[in-house]
Amino acid sequence: MTERVLEASERTRAAKTRQRISVRPQSAKSKLAGSFHTPLWHRVAERLIAILALAAVLAIALIFVFIAREAVPMLWEAEFAEEVQIRDLFFAKEWKGYDEPVFIWQPVGEPAKFNVVPLFIGSLKVTLLAMLMSVPLGVGCAMFIALYAPRAVREVVKPVIELLAGIPSVVLGFFALMVLASWAQATFGFHFRLNAFVAAIGLALTIVPVIFTISEDAIQAVPSTLTEAALALGARKYQVALRVVLPAAIPGIAAGVVLGFGRAIGETMIVLMASGNAAIMELFDFSTSVRTVTATIAAELGEVAQGDPHWRVLFLLGVMLFGVTFVLNILGDLFIQRLQKRLTAS
Amino acid sequence: MSNLTDAAAEAPNDVKMETRGVNVYYGDNHAIRNVDFDITDRSVTALIGPSGCGKSTYLRALNRMNDTIYSCRFEGRILLDGENIYDRSVDPVEVRRRVGMVFQKSNPFPKSIFDNVAFGLRIGGEKDKDVIAERVEESLKGAALWDEVKDRLQSSALGLSGGQQQRLCIARCLAVWPEVILMDEPASALDPIATAKIEELIRELRENYTIVIVTHSMQQAARVSDFTAFFYMGELIEHGKTDNMFTRPSRKRTEEYISGRFG
Question: What angle do CA B74, B56, B187 make, to 5 degrees?
Answer without folding.
Answer: 155
